[in-house]
Design a protein that fits this description.
The protein is mostly helical. It contains ten helices and no strands. It comes from Mucilaginibacter jinjuensis.
Length: 200
């Protein structure tokens, strides 16, 4: 291995170490407690080293969120494997969203908070396009005979996101929700999404 490769591997190790340390702090102490100084202490590097990789704390949070959205997309894609029924696929997308929010609650809350402070969410998080494309594919699968207009798609997609985020947030808030009741709400939400879809 050449010196350039060794240097790059070393840089990648520090970069990932910074993000892993930030995630640990986020999970154990919360977002408010996260600071560049705490990250530096955790990985035993100086503060200037952290700043050589990230402009500020917000840049660290944005990168953590990017990774979170990538993981969410992966979870949804896995949940759709082997399913052919359009309603079952919609339900699976919502379920995957909720399960991810429950498993990675601190990260999930960060993902939907940090975007409030950026100028252009879709530019900052290009991975959001992958999430919308997943929904677009499922929407087209519901009515293969109709081409959905862009404005109609946007409206339907935002409705889906509202329900997905709402259910995920409810499950974070009411941690002792009865699984049967939760399943009923989920199925009603899917029926609601499908019945409210506008194909024009």
């Amino acid at each position: 291995m050449g010196s350039k490769e060794r240097m790059q591997r070393c840089k990648d190790k520090v970069y990932n170490g910074i993000l892993n340390a930030a995630m640990d702090i986020l999970k154990t102490e919360g977002c408010e407690s996260l600071s560049v100084r705490k990250i530096a202490e955790k990985i035993e590097y100086s503060v200037p080293v952290i700043y050589s990789y990230f402009l500020n704390k917000e840049a660290v949070l944005i990168e953590l969120s990017r990774r979170g959205f990538a993981t969410l997309v992966n979870c949804v894609e896995k949940a759709l494997i082997g399913l052919t029924d359009p309603e079952a696929r919609m339900e699976s997308m919502l379920t995957a969203h909720i399960r991810f929010a429950q498993k990675e609650s601190e990260l999930y809350q960060l993902m939907y908070t940090v975007g409030i402070h950026v100028t252009d969410v879709e530019e900052t998080f290009p991975i959001l396009k992958d999430i919308s494309n997943l929904f677009r594919k499922e929407l087209n699968g519901l009515r293969k005979d109709i081409s959905v207009t862009e404005s109609s798609f946007r409206s339907n997609y935002l409705t889906f996101l509202s329900i997905a985020h709402g259910l995920a947030t409810l499950n974070l808030y009411f941690r002792n929700l009865d699984p049967v009741a939760n399943c009923t709400v989920l199925k009603r939400a899917v029926r609601g999404i499908i019945s409210s879809i506008d194909f024009e």
